[in-house]
Give the backbone structure.
Amino acid sequence: MQPLVRSLGVTSALDIGANAGFFSIELGLLGIPTVALEAEPPAVRTALLAVERSGVKGVGVLALEMDPNTVRLLPSTDCTLCLSIWHHLVRTHGLEAATGMLRTVWDRTAKVMFFDTGESEMPASFNIPDMAPDARAWLSRYLESVCEPSRIEHLGLHAAFDADRKPCMRNLFAVIR
């Protein structure tokens, strides 16, 4: 992700579902003002502490649950990290609402959105669509249709965890204006 952030001249960022703030702090260390969005109180407290202890300037933590009503409150930034969050939006709000939220996030993104999500490793309770013929192809088509105009770049596979905290591999995408 870092080479794209640099080559695109990113000057602001939003990390949706920031958890403890790792990526937010990393962006801050690059000199990029960043908002870490997190809804879970323990993660918010951890992110606040991590930002304080890192000494990095220009990183803020926003305690807010993103949903169809609050998504419009998100700031417009050059770069948005939408990592391991979409499948939770689908589970909680349904595919149509999750798609609408992703479209709004993209509308507020000026240069690049990094995206990954739970795939076939997620249990049926998440209501993730069948990603046929494979997750990479399905997600590429989905992102192309939701994030217009854009160019979708597959950045590769990366290690992640499934709903039971077992290791798995996921596709990572850059959605570029």
The longest strand covers residues 151-161. DSSP finds six helices and seven strands in the chain.
